């Protein structure tokens, strides 16, 4: 069967398809690199094929604390129910072995000739209720122990010990889950972007960190690590190669006084992994800078840790953070609305190595920025003058009262001359 010919000519269809492809160019984004540390501080790592699962049960308390809330509550509920059912079965067996379940003993019990181990325990339901009363220390007064059975006294002691252990583990896990260190780290914030600019004649990598709470972090310290994929001279590929880089701190120790937001600075020198990276090379780099803030919570004394990371796309070259701490009526005020705001500054686009080899690059950059600043000021002033002149002209045109009338002067020769005053 022959194919049906189209009404529209083939040449026109091909031309239209080509035009649509030209109008809508296909932009292939670079595949996004997986982050080792997310912006909120969570580790982007999945553990697979763990064969020795029994190691988690050896540290059962930590396993319970690490579980999610719904799993923890289910485990605690099932542990209580299982303990109540287990001891209910034991109380029922004690009563059955002693003969308390025999209907013939009910008449003798009323005549005070028969003494049961536990009064009013005639079925498994009553044994289950008595087990709950014993473990939760609820006494309704209907069911009680007697001195008839030493085995029942042993079961009572054993159930009390098991109940105390379950309560202690439950309270400890709930306290640890509510007072975990990462809860305090939620109020430790980092700037969304980092910057590279010149400070004291050196290229520096900088970011801002702050604490939203009034309670301080004692002995706070900041560490920076660079994570990148490297290959050794022997051909070994290290997918996560961590390198510590120093932090510029005027104090000899690495501790900081985090009472107000601070700008943490790393000088890009010969020891830095960023020493050979320029502004053009930064976009192509496959690296991640991890920032770790550690300290002791002042109110609880628990050590906390806040983390974040910066990839190449989140580092702004030639920017600087705006100041956010001002003095208002004798009090230092912090404007957190400008926490991550940056402003462009003059910075050489070359690497730190080239800047050390040719210090004149920095001087030329500063001179060019000064000239451009002066030119922008001149343009701004000229625009202001032009605007003021235009406004005055427009006001004269719109307001006829401002127009000065012409006055005629008569000279001694009798000629008249017109002039404006």
TrEMBL record:
Biased composition (Low complexity): 384-397
A single GO BP: potassium ion import across plasma membrane
Residue ranges constituting the Potassium channel inwardly rectifying transmembrane domain according to the UniProt record: 37-180
Domain of life: Eukaryota
Residues annotated as transmembrane: 73-94, 151-175
Residue intervals of the Inward rectifier potassium channel C-terminal domain: 188-358
Site (Role in the control of polyamine-mediated channel gating and in the blocking by intracellular magnesium) residue list: 167
Subcellular location: Membrane
Keywords attached to this entry: Ion channel, Ion transport, Membrane, Phosphoprotein, Potassium, Potassium transport, Transmembrane, Transmembrane helix, Transport, Voltage-gated channel
Record's bilayer topology term: Multi-pass membrane protein
Coiled-coil intervals, chain numbering: none
Keyword Heme listed: no
Molecular functions per Gene Ontology: ATP-activated inward rectifier potassium channel activity
Known catalytic reactions: K(+)(in) = K(+)(out)
Chain segments carrying region Disordered: 372-397
Gene Ontology cellular component list: monoatomic ion channel complex; plasma membrane
PANTHER family documented for this protein: ATP-SENSITIVE INWARD RECTIFIER POTASSIUM CHANNEL 8, INWARD RECTIFIER POTASSIUM CHANNEL
Family: Belongs to the inward rectifier-type potassium channel (TC 1.A.2.1) family.
Name of the molecule in the record: KCNJ8 protein
